[in-house]
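Record type: ASSEMBLY
Status: queued
Input:
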Amino acid sequence: MYIHTSQIRVRYGETDRMGYLYYGFYAWYYEVGRVEAIRQLGISYRELEDQGVLLPVVEWHIQYFKPAYYDDLITVKTILKDWPIRSAIRFHTELYNEQGELLNKGITTLVFVDAQTRKKTVIPQILREKLEPYFIPAT
Amino acid sequence: MYIHTSQIRVRYGETDRMGYLYYGFYAWYYEVGRVEAIRQLGISYRELEDQGVLLPVVEWHIQYFKPAYYDDLITVKTILKDWPIRSAIRFHTELYNEQGELLNKGITTLVFVDAQTRKKTVIPQILREKLEPYFIPAT
Amino acid sequence: MYIHTSQIRVRYGETDRMGYLYYGFYAWYYEVGRVEAIRQLGISYRELEDQGVLLPVVEWHIQYFKPAYYDDLITVKTILKDWPIRSAIRFHTELYNEQGELLNKGITTLVFVDAQTRKKTVIPQILREKLEPYFIPAT
Amino acid sequence: MYIHTSQIRVRYGETDRMGYLYYGFYAWYYEVGRVEAIRQLGISYRELEDQGVLLPVVEWHIQYFKPAYYDDLITVKTILKDWPIRSAIRFHTELYNEQGELLNKGITTLVFVDAQTRKKTVIPQILREKLEPYFIPAT
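Status: finished
Output:
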């Protein structure tokens, strides 16, 4: 298992007229969580793209429990529970406010895609090497 | 069952550097589908809010099959399959491109909330009356 | 002079906690105005890009007089007053609400750029031909 | 004069199909610059709103010199050069990339508005006190 924690402050232009962070803007928060989780491994998602691998989202399931408000400092917890299966990698994400309340949680599935052919491909070798230590089976 | 169809053209600022409509921007498309579905009933979602009922999203599950591209004219099919249960209303949404290909589909669950107390409430009478004819049980 | 008029309805996720359309989202509205203005000429901006010409914004000046609100149907008036000078094209934009009130107005300057080299280039021949009839000098 | 510097990393969903940060998303960057500039004074913009003063944008003028790209770490320099005149406050903003290149610069004018009446009001006392030391005339 691999866990990363980021912090993001809610911007004015992300709120809606209810005063809540608009439900769609969480996509950007989840994305930042994933990207910073990868950066912490010592590589950047941009480098993966520059090496010819894209990572589009193929499924997103999110449950909203409490709203986030303007200027809240949100904690984004990003978890890789399972080793990527074939071309797919699945991130678990949890968002918390400053009171430690769980705001929402979700599962985002992405697939490794060749930037040229736009066909599915395997996990890049560099990412595989960085992640493997977190998934060594107990013996 | 109640079905509505809208059309939305993909804006430049909604695409990302892959050239795809960014996965989070579909929240706006799904929202437009729901809002126009309600408007077709003869009421507007804004009126519901002005009467003191909010409708925040509590769950969203979306599966992405194919990307939408810049300037694509997207057909948004919004379906109410089931009568709202207590405070929750569940919309099924399907997006198609101009070739009729299914781009993605999702289920969005929203709850009726009192604008003052921000507590769950029942479906507003005006919306109930407009929707009922589509859910009359066959006898 | 060349004038085009579009209509756009304000989405929930474009409003902010003041209840106003967030000042940055007007960029998408101005963009739609420009794109539809070009489409009315018989070509699409996407085609221009597919032919290798990009049109990034190099300057934007907007004055906000009144807010737009959720669900407002906005009229976007896009005006080309002057023939493009060298690589630059300048659009004047005015937004009106359903009461005909001027909400904001702005000037957006874009430059024709070669998609490969990302260097300035001249106005594409196809766009030039379509626009010229609107700028024929009276004799 | 009062100067503040923030840093913001470009998110994937803020880029467009040119690979550039979309010109409208800079509104969020400029906003973060202003908000963090105020926070550095020891008050938060949210507090000002909670005390009944809104600060909508009434004019924005931005010149784009170079694009920002995905994952760039952008430096946002926010400058108050002049003491607020009547109800208006004017921020100068400059954005730089990691190479120190000026990407764009702009002037944003906002007005203090009473949250209840939505009429112009004067600068809140708390903000006035925090800012005054930076604008004491040399004698």
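Annotation: Chain C has a mean pLDDT of 96.
Annotation: The helical segments of chain C are 26-40, 45-50, 125-131.
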